[in-house]
């Protein structure tokens, strides 16, 4: 199974490998959600949704549904 | 030579763009609307060196030139239209030193439109905390522009920026990105088809159709026929363009910026650990709300009492100082009490706007959106609905406009429909005066009963909004993609100057906007209350004298009886008594009825209306509150404003849709009369029923 941002736990990091352009708004890409950039899960709201992320230095929150369309390679600490 | 330079300030949200605007223009600014749409247009004048003047326009914040909202569309419309009178001679892109990489994306897009573009790197004072160092010379060389490193907080670098703007003609307009890197064939074809046009501009026009589709094409109308790619292909090209731009930006920053993470002192992490915590986050949010309501109530009571008494004495003074006649009566009994009814609420409204602007400026509002999204989604709303619901406590009109950044149409529509339930500042005057009349003083756990009642009314407003959203979510059948992206900006200490400017600006527009209506209504009411048709009005004195001849009344009492007879048979009295049967079951008399009817122009008219009606024919110097307390229920006897009728009125105002401006905005934002009509009918009927039940139960 492919690992996505939705699988991250708090404090974990990964590198974005693929973004499905059908499910992801251009706005998110423009904010830095692009292949090659790093992503860190900063904080989770109750029920693990939405997810507060640090992508390439930009801090933003997205819903878990969207996060599950962004594939990553997890960085083991 | 006194040439005026057109300057456009452009930047991502949360980069301190407005602070730069305030630093450049100071108080020389005016806020209006773009014609036809309700996007705020801020412009100002700045004096530059060598006697040059700059006309500065502060464009809405945007992340890129691919618009996804009406506000962002304004930016593109202006930049694509060379004939617009505001078309910039020079664009100033404001970026934030901590998010330089992302901010540069917008910079490269604007530069590619071949407009001279200055890069401002703001918040330079934070560089040291974050361990960031910049090689400005390198950045200027690679980006082929001039860079101003500034700090609006410390007021540094503004003069340098002014110099750069003055010498804008020296700035190169070479593009950053070669379009053939995206798709050589496609862009070569485009260039051949429209040899006189800038290719990147054409590309923007084509792709706006994909995303938003409202660009005014003017001379490049023919481009609509240039369809050689499917929408999905175009989106893929946009994605590629974004990647290419980031590659360029990364190569620039590789040598232009160094970040020493060991130097970074991260306040954000520490604050977020608490403020977005599963338990503490919500607890703190609740405490903040509680503090706001207590403050609005307690802090503003002193200036309010002061203003109330000033207007009462002013009215009295006018009566004594001016020669008696129709004009003096109109002034003393119509205009002054009517205006007093609005001026008195300036302190509270200013406090409310103060708190809202501090919450937004500090970056806390985004945390609330994050915390609330999951909860709100259950009710068919978005986390972003929290901002309209909270700013709806100031006014539903900007709140409904603030729904524009909700990506999903169904969530947005529901937010628009339920926002008018939140307690707007126009309800505040009504609440305050009634609470002070019918709710006893006293304290519970350090909080006043009156403040608690007010808080309860706000909660009722929110509660009703949420419950109606839940019902609407079940009823409405609208499908759409759900996207939710919100930036979590850095925490900032709000700039005193920005907060003050916001408070002054918003309070001013509240007072003048509502003031005009109130003035007109006060005059109308005074005329209607001072004249009447039949003999009961015109011969009031004779009738009253005859009726009470046996009782041997004192001159004063007799005068009062005459005044009340006149009022009752005046035009307004006749109208009021005609509608009285409909509102009597709610515990109101015809005077309140008139006040409610006039409230449909704007709710805050209520207090001014009562003040005008009560003061017609009265000779004593009295405050609005005392006059209301002295009113007697015509049937039951005893004071008119009892606990039961007071609560009934409070609930009526909590639920009724009584604001024409809001209905107009809802029409504009939903593009249909259906939604505002439903709001008006459903909310007002509901209000009537609740008020009826409350009065009958409590009386």
TrEMBL record, chain A:
It holds the Pfam family FeoA. Residues 3-74 form the Ferrous iron transporter FeoA-like domain. SUPFAM superfamilies: C-terminal domain of transcriptional repressors. This is Ferrous iron transport protein A. Gene3D superfamilies: 2.30.30.90. GO terms for molecular function: transition metal ion binding. Coiled coil: none annotated. Keywords: Iron.
From TrEMBL, chain B:
Residues 4-171 form the FeoB-type G domain. The chain crosses the membrane at residues 279-297, 335-359, 413-439, 451-472, 510-529, 592-616, 636-656, 677-698. Pfam families: FeoB_C, FeoB_N, Gate. GTP binds at residues 11-18, 36-40, 58-61, 122-125. The keyword Magnesium applies. Mg(2+) 1 binds at residue 22. It is found in: Cell inner membrane; Cell membrane. This is Ferrous iron transport protein B. It comes from Confluentibacter flavum. The lineage of its organism: Bacteria, Pseudomonadati, Bacteroidota, Flavobacteriia, Flavobacteriales.
